[in-house]
């Protein structure tokens, strides 16, 4: 009898042979600026822990206290017996932070997009998506039965073209949903959400923004892209985000109208059918919001360091693309070169991973760096010196 699982090893071997398998690096200890990766002390330069909150004493204390007061598991899914006071307080505080009528917390950002998008649209609807949107959006759209149209990256004129075509479609679409990342994770550029929202308004479309990389980074107190552009909730209907990046913990969320939240929690299958956050997670997320509101210096520091780093790399002649945020890609072109550069940086003590095809175009391989407010000026200078040394050796500059 043929082994029905033989494809597992065969497909894995294909990945290994084409060097597209993931080789995991292990952190032994916390994700601090200087950390132990695979037994070596290196400067972390690729984590999403933008503000260093994953090791903030207030978050750690809140998590520990919640474990003592509420235990380490919620015991159920939210709709049955898994809603605790901490979950309700978190949603209340998040809505206040986002200046929204209501918020809803999911288990992860991925679970948010995969759970909500297929409820907002279905058969007879059209999703209009930026070509560089995150994979969790793409999967959310696939789970719906809606048609999908893609517009050129961050291009309102092309979005308008798609909207005009959608208007003349027969039979008429029931609903239109425009969906975009807020900050694009591979290039660090910001979606022109003001113009996207205006087009959505003119064409009667819902507007959904995934602000995973904008929260804790953009807008006053790091409230995110909607605050950054000063947009009303009547223009951006779903503001989605995650606690797994600048907030330093884990968990997805949406903010918008009370109607949106009532709809979302009654219909999203990922929310209804999957266990809720352990109490220490909910408590740490609450503490993160508190820190963002009270300690505004972290966001300021993040931007100061970002400017220092981008200027130094630019002066050295590196190509940092069109980044406008603390995500700074160092584009080298060829995948092998990107891998060599990353390996050399690691030897020098800087941990920054290569991003290669199919995550980016074949000739746009890069090292993606992400700034962290917990770094010192000297840390950033060390990173620049490492890039300079490795870059010259490999003739990138
Ligand atoms: N959206 C974007 C734009 C992301 O970058 C990510 C994380 N890679 C997610 C959604 C998923 O978030 P989470 O890690 O909370 O599942």
Can you characterise this structure?
It contains 14 helices and 13 strands. The chain is of the alpha/beta class and 397 residues long. The chain has two domains: 13-44 and 296-393, Aspartate Aminotransferase, domain 1 (Alpha-Beta Complex), CATH 3.90.1150.10; 57-294, Type I PLP-dependent aspartate aminotransferase-like (Major domain) (Aspartate Aminotransferase, domain 2, 3-Layer(aba) Sandwich), CATH 3.40.640.10. The strands form three sheets. A seven-stranded mixed β-sheet has the order 3-9-8-7-6-4-5, sandwiched between helices. The chain has a three-stranded mixed β-sheet with strand order 1-2-11. A three-stranded antiparallel β-sheet has the order 10-13-12, with helices on one face. Helix 8 (225-229) links the parallel strand 7 (206-210) and strand 8. Helix 12 (297-316) packs parallel to helix 14 (377-393). It is globular. The protein starts with 5 loop residues before the first helix and ends with a helix. The relative contact order is 0.15. The structure holds 4'-deoxy-4'-aminopyridoxal-5'-phosphate (PMP). The site of 4'-deoxy-4'-aminopyridoxal-5'-phosphate (PMP) has 13 residues, from helix 4.
């Amino acid at each position: 009898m043929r082994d029905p699982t033989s494809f597992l090893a065969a497909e894995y071997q294909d990945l290994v042979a084409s060097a597209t398998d993931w080789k995991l690096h292990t952190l032994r200890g916390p994700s601090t600026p200087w950390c132990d990766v695979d037994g070596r002390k290196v400067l972390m330069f690729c984590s999403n822990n933008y503000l260093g909150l994953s090791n903030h004493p207030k978050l750690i204390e809140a998590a520990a206290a919640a474990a003592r007061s509420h235990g380490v598991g919620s015991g159920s899914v939210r709709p049955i017996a898994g809603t605790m006071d901490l979950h309700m307080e978190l949603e209340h505080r998040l809505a206040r932070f986002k200046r929204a009528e209501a918020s809803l917390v999911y288990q992860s950002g991925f679970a948010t997009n995969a759970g909500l998008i297929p409820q907002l649209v279905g058969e007879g609807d059209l999703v209009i998506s930026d070509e560089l949107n995150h994979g969790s959006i793409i999967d959310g759209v696939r789970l719906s039965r809606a048609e999908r149209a893609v517009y050129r990256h961050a291009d309102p004129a092309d979005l308008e073209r798609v909207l005009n075509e959608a208007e003349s479609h027969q039979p008429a679409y029931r609903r239109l949903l425009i969906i975009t990342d807020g900050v694009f994770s591979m290039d660090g550029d910001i979606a022109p959400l003001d113009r996207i929202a205006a087009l959505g308004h003119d064409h009667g479309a819902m507007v959904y923004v995934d602000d995973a990389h904008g929260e804790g980074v953009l807008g006053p107190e790091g409230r995110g892209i909607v605050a950054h552009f000063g947009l009303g909730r009547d223009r951006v209907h779903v503001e989605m985000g995650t606690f797994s990046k600048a907030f330093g913990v884990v968990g997805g969320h949406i903010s918008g109208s009370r109607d949106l939240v009532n709809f979302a929690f009654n219909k999203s299958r990922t929310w209804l059918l999957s266990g809720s956050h352990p109490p220490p997670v909910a408590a740490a997320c609450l503490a993160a919001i508190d820190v963002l509101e009270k300690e505004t210096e972290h966001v300021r520091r993040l931007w100061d360091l970002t400017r220092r780093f981008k200027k130094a790399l630019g002066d050295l002649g590196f190509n940092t693309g069109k980044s406008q945020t603390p995500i700074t890609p160092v584009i080298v072109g060829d995948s092998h070169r990107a891998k060599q550069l990353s390996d050399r940086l690691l030897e020098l003590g800087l941990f920054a991973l290569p991003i290669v095809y199919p995550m980016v175009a074949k000739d746009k391989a890069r090292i993606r760096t992400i700034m962290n407010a917990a770094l010192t000026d000297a840390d950033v200078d060390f990173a620049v010196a490492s890039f300079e040394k490795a870059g010259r050796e490999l003739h990138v500059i």
